[in-house]
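User: Sequence in, structure out. Go.
Assistant: Echoing your sequence, followed by the structure tokens.
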Amino acid sequence: MSGTASKDHKEYVTVLICKNSLLSMGLELLLADTRFAVSEIGSDEPPPQRPRLHVQPDLFIVDGSPSSQELLTSIKLLKVQHPNAKIVVVADNFDIDFVRLGIDTGADGFCLTTSDREVLIKLLELVMTGEKIVPGALVLSMLSEMTPNAKPDQDSPTAVPLQYDAGIHRLSPREAEILRSLMRGEPNKVIARKLDVAEATIKVHVKAILRKVGAANRTQAALWATEHLTTKGSKP
């Protein structure tokens, strides 16, 4: 148990790369007392003007305003120089094409500056597990560009949401319990053992949850839960 606890509470060395000093100050405050320890504030200047970092970062949070080719170049350079570090871009809004290019150049996540603190923290945690995260509004836009017969893969982080079923939006108590397990990153096998049911039963529940909240995969469902179960403090 102690080994698991230490792993769960691992701190991530975080470097902020922001042109906007208010944004960097705000991020420092939001990340205070979390697993994301802001070690220093970097620079988005190209080499050799860019000062050398004094730490080995686990995570870069990059100011994405404005979205530009120069920013994409900076993301690519960061990934080349720090291949094991994750990169999350924050901005007031994102263009779909920029997000696609950003993912291609090495970005791991995109977060709107209008997001709540809980959403930001959950997004960063998911990115550190290897997920690729984009704002829900962009996912819906991507959905509209897909062919009608396209079938999303519920285990793919780049999958698009399933059709939203407003008539059955409310989750059952069991579904809410399973959704909270998804927020903790628990696999179906663990959830099934905890609830003393068959793993196939959990798969059925997860599929129903994805449909009800309009999510494509477990990651998106966890983000939905962060906003609707944690931030608002209400039960489904």
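User: And one key feature?
Assistant: Strands lie at 12-17, 36-41, 59-63, 86-91, 109-112.
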